[in-house]
Amino acid sequence: MAESKNGFSSSFGAIMAAAGSAIGLGNIWRFPYICGKYGGGAALVLYLVFVFLIGMTLLLSELVIGRRTGHTPMKAFEALQPKRRAWRYVGLIGIITCFLILSIYLVISGWTLNYFWESVSGTLASVADGDFAAHFAAFAASPVAPIVCLVVFAALTLVVILGGVQNGIEKVSKVLMPVLLVLVLLLCVRSLTLPGASKGLAYLFHPDFSKLSWEGVLAILGQALFSLSVGMGVMIVYGSYIPKSDNLFKSAMWITVCDTAIALLAGVAIFPAVFAFGQSPDGGPGLVFNVLPVVFNSMGNVGSIVFGGAFFLLLAVAALTSAISLLEAVTAWGAEYLHKRNVSAALITVLSCVVAVLAAYAYEGGVLGGVKLGGMSLFDWLNKLTGDYLPPICALLTILFFGWVVKKDVVRDELSNGGTLPTRWFEFFYLVLARWLAPIALIVALVAGI
Fold first, then answer.
1. Which of 40, 49, 362, 385 has CB 3.0 to 4.6 Å from 378, enough for a Cys bridge?
2. Mean pLDDT computed over every residue of the chain
3. What is the pTM of this model?
4. Beta partners for 376?
């Protein structure tokens, strides 16, 4: 059980670690873009409804499964339903998803490390003709630079995991999460003081219901469902580390609040600056690596180094906290079978680096860029598989297991800490959200994605 494991030493440590897992690259560049594209304030209100009713339901269900059993996904499902062992393969899907996401994450995280270094060293300030699109394309196509960066990032992640749960993950998360908050607040202050910043705020927060299409609703639902690191087994593993005395509902609420707050602050930091300098608010890597360096350079050499460096450090920190949780989930799973945590961590890191190198070489213009799988490169194929299909499938199967297979009394006992906490909200959570609303939302998202 969880008490006999080397779990988190405090509620604060658990919340910081889990929030760090949830807060990733998608929060920084994808969430603000989706809100702006699909109605600003109207999209934001809908997002908050989705994330607190459906996303948090999925998060809480995984935390319950993990803490109740004290196991990683496969053994956790088996422990709660030993007579129907096929359910354990849901956990296996989660582990595979986690591993593949880690591999893709290493590639993109390596890019953030490179751009942080290029910002603080002044390299970005001297890009020829300010053509950052060409600069990024040349870097991504290089056979050496992206690989070195992803390996360095993987090594940083491994060092944290080798430190263990308390001395590695928890200790680092308690430092990195406040650092992340300070960085995003610093960028917010600078962005809001720029001339024309109000246009960026209007893009984010002005309600425009004409943009809130069915496509937009699905995009907002997808972002809400998968911004909390659910559907990949991570929160089951972290749940197994949470002390039995902690209030899981409060922990899930704090994790959700932190995740949403950082995403909102990232939007406030990015889009006023983008609009102030007349740039296009495109989403994804194009915004981060092609557009924002133009914005930072427009602030002068000092602005480029200080604020460009701060932004890419923010990205690197967000990437690191998420990568730590991804590697930990797969490491913990491997350790249950190898009985050697450090060996498991090293092995998983090496394997993920191999996949990451192949994915990096398969990126547009790379060494393997001409190799296609179903018309897509390996990078795009893995990105789509881990973004549109595996997490929602795993999340759907997990919530069906939680709501319809796990006994109601077991869930109530875990959420009430053996009857010591009030659970007046339990019936609504279990019977309405977990059994019906969350599964229906996931089915709709999956069908729409297909």
1. 362
2. 90
3. 0.93
4. 373
Q: Say whether pLDDT at 224 is over 50.
A: yes
CA distance 372 to 309: 35
DSSP string, 114-174: HHHHHHHTTTGGG-GGG-HHHHHHHHHH-SSHHHHHHHHHHHHHHHHHHT-IIIIIIHHHH
Sign of the CA dihedral with 283 first, then 211, 436, and 432 last = positive
Rounded distance between C-alpha atoms, residue 319 and residue 324, angstroms: 9
Alpha carbons 57 and 78: distance in angstroms, whole number: 21
For the chain, give every domain's residue range. 2-449
Query: Percent of the chain scored above 90 by pLDDT?
Result: 60
How many CA atoms lie within 13 Å of 164's alpha carbon, on the beta-carbon side?
A: 7
Instruction: Write out the two tokens for 1.
Output: 């059980």
Q: Is 311 left (phi over 0), alpha (psi -120 to 50) or beta?
A: alpha
pLDDT at 311: 92
CA–CA separation, 151 vs 46, rounded Å?
Answer: 39
pLDDT band at residue 420 using 50, 70 and 90 as cut-offs: very high
Token representation of residue 325: 């949780």
CATH class of 2-449: mainly alpha
